[in-house]
Amino acid sequence: MDFKKLTIKSASEGLRKKKFSSVELTEAILDEIERRDGEIKAFLSVDREGALEAAKDADRLLAKEENLSPLVGVPLAVKDAILVKDLVSTSASGILENYKATYDATVIKKIKEIGAVILGKTNMDEFAMGSSTENSAFFPTRNPHDLKKVPGGSSGGSAAAVAADETIWALGSDTGGSIRQPSSFCGIAGFKPSYGAVSRFGLMAMASSFDQIGPLGKTVEDCFTAFNAIRGKDSFDSTSFDVGLDLGDQLAVKNMKIGMPKEYFAQGLDPRIEMLVKQAIEKLQDQGAQIKEISLPHSQFALACYYLILSSEISANLARYDGIKYGVCRSGENLLDVYLNSRKDGLGDEVRRRIMLGTYALSAGYYDAYYKKAQQIRTLIRKDFEEAFKQVDVLMCPVSPILPFGFGEKTSDPIQMYLCDIYTVIANLAGVPALSMPCGKVGNLPVGLQIIGPQKGDSTVLQMGSALERLLK
Question: So which residues are the catalytic ones?
């Protein structure tokens, strides 16, 4: 049996019908990692012993109990920014090179309790800062569709592992597109839930008002199944809440109103991407969906607004990495030298750049001009979405204006790298759910379509994605 091509659904069905055991499935995936990851480099670490032990436990559950989660015995990979107890968790940063997590993130606790199998930790841009996984302190990850291209970022390792059949599904985090953009580049599905729908406890914070954990899978249905397992209110995260979720019967596409933001189909978008996205939307129109052009008038300010607030929160959140309590520590003549030397040696260029930008934006004399103004614009962007969703049920647009690019093409110009997020950051600014799903290819390079819904409209986004997935197949 070809274990590599299994989805969560087909793997779960096979386990329940005793076509194979979780140990057999896990061993096959681990062997695939060993065979292929030397060229992909999706994983920072693989916990073979722990995975096989978890698989044995899952098989015991499957033998004696019914009504189990569909994730029981199904292997997954975890982004290195999410803490897994007793595993090295570095967030792909040199400053945490040997840090071993002392507790499980809430999402990890949940998936362990239901019997999922954790294979290991995946590569990423350092502290999730980047759009290509080139900023990892250890090595870059490669796109399985073209090894000369980047897999996107910052959850590039998770996306590449799913696309390369080195895992059934994966967990990532999305601060400005870090699940959706690599999912688009790697030709898989990736879901950023509503802000607060999944607990952030145990996720290494980059920008606390943007960060959101979410699933990456081979299908939209896989994303739904995984999201259903990790969602919910958590006493350790005061921003979390319970969100209703119902994939239920197939969505009645005929009654849906789909908005196409005109600002996202403008200059700068690769015409080949535009054609594929519009062709996919036309399939929904053929089924009776109503298509309407709408405007998000403040989206022109979204990228600048996002990076100002983001850098400010980074400046505060990363102050903890000072060489004193944990991580890299470099000696110095005084305490200030210890701080400076530890951070200089332990943090990469992009991380230090954003810390400096954020510190500047928060400094006396500049706070009102930059940080406060950006927060005011964020409020206007949220209002744009509120008005849009009075007219339509969901928005559809590209995930990225460009195809996967080559290594080194954008690293010398940070602004060009930041522009990769131009279509994704707005969902994080507004805190709304957004899905990336494949809608075709240009040559051998995948193209992703983005579906954005209203706050707490996670079910609607996943239902629409599932309906479109069936039409595209």
Answer: 79, 154, 178
